[in-house]
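Many introductory courses stop at the sequence. We go one step further.
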Amino acid sequence: MALLNVHERPLPVPPESVGALLDSLGCPDDRLWPPGWPELRFQGPPAVGVPGGHGPISYVVSHYVPGRWIRFRFTGPRGFEGFHEFSVESLGEGRSLLRHTLVVRPYGWRWLAWPVVVRPVHDAVFGQVLERAERALTGRTVRPAGRGWYARMLRGATALLAPGGVRKAPGRLRKDEP
């Protein structure tokens, strides 16, 4: 059985503006990926076939429509099969929706890791991604992402164990962002 996890945020800006942010993902001028988490990196500009990842998670870009949609197929760690993707949809009248979708099938003991470690970290990271998008595009955040103690503790542990380190503070959009 596969797990489905969706995060989305309506934004009062046209899809082209959101798409420009999406296209910065994993690049030196990345305005989406939150600081303090293992850095999202690609081995080249985003394009189909380019490998990348964040922390212990590795993937390859399997689909890419610039400014609209990017899908990553997981290649590691072992025991997880699936993908995650970002999409930008028009809501009409200069509004759009930024969505992150995760579809993953954990195998063996990794089923236990989902509720205990993976989901809390995933929810915190992608909540902050959507918050950063909103702040970058509008200058404010209507619904701040949750920052519970458990997710903060896991972030600290993840940062210590992350290959390649964490995203540094220059990418911050506000002083109080953890």
